[in-house]
Design goal:
This protein is an alpha+beta fold. The chain has helices at about 20-35, 75-85, 125-135; strands at about 15, 45-55, 60, 90-100, 140-145, 150-155. Helix content is about 25%, strand content about 25%. The protein is built from 3 helices and 6 strands. Strands 1-6-5-4-2-3 form a 6-stranded mixed β-sheet. The chain binds tetrahydrodeoxyuridine. Tetrahydrodeoxyuridine binds near residues 43, 63 and 72.
Length: about 170
């Protein structure tokens, strides 16, 4: 058999926070603000996510940890489950994610300085959860905030090639 090598290319954009259009900056700001509602008792890692809905509303969520570790939930799933429960049938257009921890910062660091220098990226489970809404309503743009740059992916699908689709 002749083995064929194939390749998947993921395209994304990178820019500085200041270069984002104002509406995107507002969404990133909402994700950063949402980190204030994180319950990061065990990891000390505060994550916020904000989703722009087709009705213009912004729905945000933060990670919620639990003493029984696997029972906790990431910011992205908190946000998309809340968004769908609050506005069923309304498309999700964009999601922004931001995270900070004091772990790598000096004690005098400001809140702003504690944000990750490079963006964090949603875990596999969150990608799968978000993908469900993307399939229902169309592409969800993903904005990942880092102090040194924002990564912009055109869709959740771009972050999850060969995703599980149907049974
Ligand atoms: N976490 C998120 O909320 N989103 C991510 O994209 C990555 C990880 C949370 C889960 C846990 O509460 C903490 O960050 C440390 O992993």
């Amino acid at each position: 058999m002749l083995m064929k090598e194939k390749e998947i290319v993921i395209r994304y954009a990178q820019c500085a926070y200041d270069e984002l259009p104002e509406a995107d900056r507002r969404l990133v700001d909402a994700a950063r603000e949402a980190t204030r509602n994180s319950l990061a008792t065990y990891s000390g890692f505060h994550v916020g996510a904000a989703i722009l809905m087709a009705n213009g509303e912004i729905v945000s969520g933060a990670n919620q940890e639990n003493a029984a570790y696997p029972s906790g939930t990431c910011a992205e799933r908190t946000a998309c489950f809340y968004a769908s429960a609050r506005y069923p049938g309304v498309a999700m257009l964009k999601i922004a994610v931001a995270a900070w921890t004091r772990d790598h910062a000096c004690p005098e660091a400001t809140w702003e300085e504690c944000f990750q220098a490079l963006p964090i990226s949603p875990c596999g489970a969150c990608r799968q959860a978000l993908l469900e809404y993307e399939r229902m309503y169309g592409p969800i743009e993903v904005l990942l905030y880092g102090r040194e740059g924002v990564y912009i992916f055109p869709s959740v699908g771009a972050l999850l090639p060969f995703s599980f689709t149907e049974f």
